[in-house]
Structure formats: structure tokens, C-alpha cells
Amino acid sequence: MTTLAYEKKDDIRKTFTVDSPIPYMLTKLVDRLQDDDTRKGIGKTGPVKGEWEGKLTRFISRFQAKINDRRYGFLFQPPKSALSYDWLGKQMCKLLGSSEQNCGIKIVNFSEVPSDVLPVVAGTFARLLYEIQFWTRPEKRTPFCIVCDEAHLYLPVRDDADAVQRQALESFERIAKEGRKYGVSILAVSQRPSDVSRTILSQCNNFMVLRLTNDRDQAVVRRLMPDSMAGVTDILPLLDTGEAVLLGDAVLLPSRIKLDEPSVTPTSATRDFWLEWRTVAPDEAAISEAVETLRKQSRPENQNGNT
Fold first, then answer.
1. Are 257 and 246 part of one and the same domain?
2. Alpha-carbon torsion (147, 153, 154, 160), positive or negative
3. Distances from the Cα of 177 to the Cαs of 22, 56, 96, 153, 265, in angstroms?
4. What's phi and psi for 244, nearest 5 deg?
5. H or E element at residue 42
6. Are residues 213 and 260 in the same domain?
7. Distance of alpha carbon 247 from alpha carbon 76, whole angstroms
8. pLDDT, tens only, 79-101
9. Do 102 and 179 fall into the same domain?
10. Number of domains, the chain
11. What does the alpha-carbon distance between residue 213 and residue 221 come to, in Å, rounded to a whole number?
């Protein structure tokens, strides 16, 4: 309310809900919680125990511990610019916009996000993109695809998901089921398809399957094919590096294809162990630098160009 009053957004003050992304100071929220936790009630004969008095003490203690934990600094200690009213609009324009300076694929690196909050962060991010697209005027929508690398980490099978992971699942499953009519699609990438949400896999129209040796993973692919073509999965363990089986609406029949090698080798590519064990000697200075980086929990900017 304070932000909307300061920005003179009277029309939004009349209609905003708990889902409205409005910036606010976290310290003010803590102050209000502490006020509720200590406020006395007023009885006929004087002060009495308040409705919330003493009930929020443990919650406030845990909440402040999270706020002070530097691992969650990106959540609870944002830069001052993130608290401005127009910050979210500018960030969404960078992600969804397509100008000469801001076009092509956008990479969002969640590799340094703590694993216990990764599902929530990824799910909230996807939900925000979907909601922006949902509320955009239909004639102004530009379709886009969310590529979920290592999808099994935050899109697990619902039966195996805990309460935190289910929060992310709900956002991504909603996109998988309803996103196509708003121009939002999902590309799920995983080495373990058997660990990816069945709801999301069932909504995918096309599949590119590389070498799989696990029986459970092969069974997932087998269920995606017509019974007459189930034998195609027999070649999955025999595929060479760069070979894949392509099936779905994009092709008339399941096909075995050979992918072109990338012109720029990805940093996630498998290292050449046999060669590098003999030719690359351990660098003690680099190891000492890695120890300091571990202590800082932050990579130097020149080591990682992702955003």
C-alpha cells in the first residue's frame, strides 16, 4: 500500500491482490510481524493477551535467519534499484523484448542458487513469465519457449516431489497444459526422463531422444510410441555420441538422426579424461583461487558470461 500511495497508483490500489507484484521493503514487513507478535489486546478491565501475541515469535526468528543468510541474499537483500516501481517492467522487457541490442536467446543461470530453494525460484520465474504473457493483449503477444535444462531437478515426478518442489511443478504443469494458447511453450531437457513430471511429458508434442541405457528411461520413451514402433527403443543403448531418435508431430515416422557438432564447444561437454590426465598438470594457483571462490560463494565475472 505504501508503494502504491507513493507512486500515486490509485487505480491499482483499488484492485491489487496478493498475486500483484508490487515492491516493498522487507524490513517493514518484519516490523509489522513483530508488532502483531507483541501487541496487547484491549479487554473490559484493561490490556489482555493479543490475538497474535507470542504466536509469531518462532516464525519471525526463522524468517530473520533466512534474511541474514547470505546464500539467499539474491532473494532477501536485493539492490535498491529492484525496489523501484518500474524495475520489473524493465527486466521483463529485457527477457521478452526483441530489439537490436536485446534479441535472440536469453540465458538465466540458476547454477548458484541453493538447491533447497531452486524449485521455488525456477517456478516463480516461469510463473511470472507466463502471467506477463497472459495479461498481454492477444494481438501483441509474441510466442516464446522456456528451455528447462536439467529438468529433473525442479520438475520431478509428482509422487516423488516434496512440498517445495510441488510449488514449481504447479507453475510448469499449468504452462504445459494451458500455455500454448497464450504463446508459451516448454522444452524440457533431462538425462533422466523417468524422473521428469509425467504431466509435462504427456503435453510434449515432439521428442528428441539421445542414448539411454537405463530400463526405466527407455520405458518412458516406449510409452510415447505406437505399439507397432516400440522396437525403435531397442537401438537407444546403441546410439553414438550426437545420434538421436526423433519422434512426434514434427516428423512422419520416428527417425534416427545425426546432430551437427556445435561450432563452439559448450562448457558442459564431457572432458577428455584420457588426454587431459596426461597433458594437463594441476595448477596450484588455480586451486588456491578456487578455494577463495568457494569461500566467497561467487564466481569472478570473467568466468561466467550468463545472466
1. yes
2. positive
3. 28, 38, 21, 20, 34
4. -155, 160
5. strand 41-42
6. yes
7. 44
8. 888 888 899 988 888 888 877 76
9. yes
10. 3
11. 12
Domain stop point among 149, 183, 204: 204
Element (H, E) at 245: strand 243-248
The residue with cell 492477444 is 138
Residue with grid cell 473490559, as numbered in its chain:
44
- Grid cell listed for 197: 513430471
- Identify the CA nearest to 221 among candidates 180, 239, 178, 169: 239
Give Dmax (Cα) for the chain.
85
Domain that holds residue 171: 87-204
CA distances from 131 to 12, 26, 101, 174, 219 (A): 17, 24, 25, 11, 35
Q: Residue 23: exposed, middle, or buried by beta-carbon count in 10 A (0-12, 13-18, 19+)?
A: middle
Q: How many C-beta atoms surround the C-beta of residue 179 within 10 A? A: 23
Distance of CA 106 to the CA centre of its chain: 13
Q: pLDDT (tens digit, 9 = 90+) per residue, 249-299?
A: 888 888 889 988 888 777 766 777 888 888 888 888 989 998 988 888 777
Question: What is the C-alpha to C-alpha distance for residues 19 and 307, in angstroms, rounded to an integer?
Answer: 26
